[in-house]
Model the fold of this input.
Amino acid sequence: MGRRAAGDSGPERQTGTLGKAVEVLEIIASAEGPMRFTDILARSDQPRGTLHRQLTNLAAEGLVTADRGHSYSLGLRLLKFASRAWADNAFRAVAEPYLRRLHEATGETVHLAVLAGDEMIYLDKVESRKAVRMHSQIGNTAPLHCTGVGKAALSTLEPDELALVVGRLSYERFTENTLPGPGPLLDELARVRAEGVAYDREEHGPGIRCVAAPIPSSGRSRAAGLSVTGPIFRAGEERMQLWAGLVRDVAAEVTEELRARLGPRA
Amino acid sequence: MGRRAAGDSGPERQTGTLGKAVEVLEIIASAEGPMRFTDILARSDQPRGTLHRQLTNLAAEGLVTADRGHSYSLGLRLLKFASRAWADNAFRAVAEPYLRRLHEATGETVHLAVLAGDEMIYLDKVESRKAVRMHSQIGNTAPLHCTGVGKAALSTLEPDELALVVGRLSYERFTENTLPGPGPLLDELARVRAEGVAYDREEHGPGIRCVAAPIPSSGRSRAAGLSVTGPIFRAGEERMQLWAGLVRDVAAEVTEELRARLGPRA
DNA sequence: AGCGACAGTTCCACTATCCGGAATTGACTT
DNA sequence: AAGTCAATTCCGGATAGTGGAACTGTCGCT
Done:
């Protein structure tokens, strides 16, 4: 049985068969393209036979496709599920008009992302340039420690939960400005809490800046973040301050409407 | 042993635990909004206790969210998976520039959809009006018997597989023009095979017409369809003929490039 | 209020189902 | 042709899921 070793630092403990299956999906999702059986095997802790059967089952359900010739990728059935998940998501629906307004006010790309597990998932986006391909971000995930939305969402967590999450992160460094560990992150979060805004000054990618404001979890919805992102040449300090005010106000409005619509009895 | 005989490619008998879990997801996806426990129970053939545990597990994995207060909807983690599935999909990537060209040639909305199970899943879309909200279709599913892409894809199947699929469909009637059953559908498919194009003249929704061409399954990719859709006032008969030629040619090009790039050794 | 009906949750013995080591087949290389 | 490595199949054994029934909580009704 000994499933949980001492320093078991995964987001969740594997819950039975389903957990294993999802773990396999996660492994396949983590690679760029298709993966061969052995590649998956290497990243998984399942024995050969077991993994093989799991893949077969997943393929039978359409959750992965076995590009004939032993190479696996995620299945299209996931698209169907996700499209419903997105369309039915009440949080997103409530926030949508506000995103649009924020985009009109700033002219820049606006993102909405929610905290899920130990990362942010982008839920919606209004793009700066016309329709570059909106898919580009929706459903993508981003780290917590180096994005505006990530820090914004973290800033709303209860201290004990925050401690747990912060302890689990990997603190991958993307640029020179990326916060290198728990200490700096906690300091930064204190500042975010004080100001009500989180900045990302080239912490995730070079040349990109971003201002984000928190939307706390409210009964039915999870902690989230709302952000304005721009290239550094359009995101000077005075412009950042301007955006900060706008983002903070809009996030507050969204929070308010959420409370009214989704969780009157929080 | 409910294992089906050869050529089993549809809603199959539930294969073990995973199958049950996916079935639950499907049930939740089939509803408009969140579902209460009992609603799901009613549509499922699982006993109370079992279903409850399944939902709990799914929720623990982030595949469903339990909007506190006993109402379940699909979880955001699905978004992450789907976004990877979409981005990594080689078929879609190959077809994309062609869709764009077709859109420019016609000025109308262009769709790419693949056959999955007993329905079509929309894989990509280039919209007529600017950025209406591209999410609108990707991942959506549509019936086979009343859509251009559906009939186009069906027209490429082998006779025996076709017979199975056609036998399983439900033939829901959406308009007066919706083909009412297997017989008319098979007749229509013969015509599609002969002409290389499938028409949808208000079979799925009133006021909407569409011309689609088949992209046969080729080694690594599934049968698919490519279509141009327009409102009836812009889709007169002579225009439909024009589109037909364009769509047929572009679909042929895509098919060709797929063969070259994905499955030289089909 | 109190009662009744229904929704959601918990429990636990049973056994179907999944597990996983080892042997087999297949593909590709030298 | 032989050797290596990857993918697949097999099967006894134990885990993990099953599902009937009992429990709790919530709401609507008189």
About this structure: The first helix of chain A runs from residue 16 to 30.
